[in-house]
Design the sequence.
């Protein structure tokens, strides 16, 4: 599946594979949000595969929001397709424990 970002009920849903190429697009997308909103919810529940670079980039997005005193909730802890990469890169801490 091609990479897509869909907004539904205030949640940004990422669909498809996250790789180094499209992760740069995701980062640019979030740089815009960083200055425009106080908080955001990002769902990784529909991500089919993820490269380590993408997990580390998501961590950087998370840290950018935290440093700016903005709230970001990243959901997708139950997604088995990304769990291994998140664990290997030690970035699973950025995933929210609760579901929406």
Sequence:
């Amino acid at each position: 599946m091609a990479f897509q970002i869909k907004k539904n009920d205030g949640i940004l849903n990422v669909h498809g594979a996250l790789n180094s190429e499209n992760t740069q697009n995701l980062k640019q997308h979030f740089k815009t949000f960083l200055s425009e909103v106080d908080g955001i919810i990002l769902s990784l529940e529909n991500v089919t595969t993820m490269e380590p670079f993408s997990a580390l980039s998501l961590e950087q997005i998370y840290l950018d929001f935290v440093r700016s005193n903005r709230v970001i909730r990243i959901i997708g802890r139950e997604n088995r397709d990304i769990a291994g990469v998140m664990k290997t890169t030690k970035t699973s801490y950025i995933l929210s424990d609760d579901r929406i």
In short: DSSP finds three helices and four strands in the chain. The chain has a mean pLDDT of 88.
